[in-house]
Q: What sequence folds into this?
């Protein structure tokens, strides 16, 4: 292929880890002339969050091909005199507008606005210091809780270019040339397959009202299965509010080309066929195109095009009329239904449990699962007898001990909760 093309990445996989909460501490007042100072151990600071932020100036996920792990800072431990530990610093990951983040459960974020932020992993809470455990019968508690672990997950990022108008067509139908004729964009244009390897964007202005036009890699038959650059094309065009479907009027079978691309769209996502579509016959500067234009216009209408326009992207013939038609159609779309983001968008949360715990018998040992229970154990201070007593009280309040007994646990059996293994006594 002539020339060189800058690499474009529209998919990536990254690991995100929020910060752990800082530990609470055991501390006692030590003041001059105060012989019996009470507990004053402070709480740990909250761990930092992992945040996605939309950045208008980015147009690719290329960065994440080389940098795939992002970790926020841990919270600081508490301090004497009831002072809280320092909050862990957030980590902000800048992504192009149109980036969708998925975890194993589906969409967790859809970043479409410049500067928009979405928390995809929240920092753990800080543990509490010994000041919280003082009672009338225990005035000098020597226990504190550890900080809550941060969240960790793999995210799949997918970039879907945001534009008002998506130009669809086979390679060499003239998509990039039409974009250049309609806007100030300067896409690569050449007489060879797949000139466009990455989406090109341009801004057209009609009656002082701008709209964004996206020229996307061309489709070939079988594109919905991944042939050629089809999946890139279909992924990006799904964002467009309307389509301009361009065919080479001087080509061997422009109607067949139109039908093939419509079929590929339908097999990828039937909703693409519901988008308002203007058909454009290009290259009317050529004699062959002029000859077939009247027949071609009727045929494209018969095959589903809402309106059909003839242009020459090379000479500019018909381009102004096409721009006016696009502006009129966009205004009609906005009046009926405002632009909306991808359905079922939500801010990231760990999936809720059915309850605080579930007990599983595994032969001669037992496994306890449940985020709430695992969190309690991970924050327990097992280095002191008071810390172990505190853990037992919390688990008993949850009803875990009774459930284990119903499951048949016996003294000496191992009970695993998260990363910890305890012996039943």
A:
């Amino acid at each position: 292929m002539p020339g060189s093309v800058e690499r474009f990445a529209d998919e990536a996989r990254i690991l995100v880890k929020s910060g752990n909460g800082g530990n609470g501490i055991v501390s006692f007042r030590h003041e001059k002339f105060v012989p019996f100072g009470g507990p004053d151990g402070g709480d740990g600071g909250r761990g930092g969050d992992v945040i996605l932020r939309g950045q208008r100036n980015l147009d690719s996920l290329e960065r994440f091909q080389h940098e795939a792990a992002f970790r926020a800072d841990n919270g600081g431990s508490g301090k004497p005199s009831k002072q809280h530990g320092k909050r862990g610093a957030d980590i902000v990951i800048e992504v192009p507008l149109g980036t969708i983040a998925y975890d194993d459960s589906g969409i967790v974020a859809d970043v479409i606005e410049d500067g928009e932020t979405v928390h995809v992993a929240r920092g753990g809470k800080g543990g509490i210091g010994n000041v919280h455990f003082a009672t009338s019968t225990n005035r000098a508690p020597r226990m504190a809780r550890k900080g809550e672990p941060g969240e960790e997950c793999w995210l799949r990022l997918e970039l879907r270019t945001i534009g008002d108008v998506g130009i669809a067509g086979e390679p060499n139908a003239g998509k990039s040339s039409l974009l250049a004729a309609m806007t100030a964009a300067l896409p690569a244009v050449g007489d060879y397959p797949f000139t466009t390897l990455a989406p090109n964007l341009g801004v057209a202005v009609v009656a002082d009202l701008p709209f964004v036009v996206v020229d996307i890699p061309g489709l070939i038959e079988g594109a919905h299965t991944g042939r050629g650059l089809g999946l890139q094309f279909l992924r990006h065009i799904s964002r467009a509010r309307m389509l301009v479907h361009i065919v080479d009027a001087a080509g061997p079978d422009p109607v067949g080309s139109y039908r093939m691309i419509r079929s590929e769209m339908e097999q990828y996502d039937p909703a693409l066929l519901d988008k308002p579509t203007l058909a454009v016959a290009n290259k009317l500067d050529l004699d062959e195109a002029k000859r077939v234009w009247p027949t071609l216009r009727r045929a494209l209408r018969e095959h589903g095009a809402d309106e059909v326009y003839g242009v020459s992207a090379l000479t500019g013939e018909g381009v102004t009329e096409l721009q006016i038609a696009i502006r009129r159609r966009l205004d009609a779309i906005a009046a009926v239904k405002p632009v909306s983001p991808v359905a079922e968008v939500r801010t990231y949360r760990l999936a809720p449990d059915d309850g605080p715990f579930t007990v599983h018998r595994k032969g001669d040992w037992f496994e306890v699962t449940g985020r709430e229970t695992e969190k309690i154990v991970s924050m327990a201070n097992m280095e002191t007898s008071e810390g172990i007593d505190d853990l037992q009280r919390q688990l008993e309040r949850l009803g875990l001990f009774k459930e284990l007994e119903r499951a048949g646990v016996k003294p000496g059996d191992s009970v695993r909760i998260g990363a910890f293994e305890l012996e039943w006594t």
Observations:
- Helices lie at 175-182, 230-237, 254-268, 287-302, 319-336, 371-378, 385-398, 400-407.
- The first strand starts at residue 11 and ends at 17.
- The chain has three domains: 11-159, 165-336, 358-423.
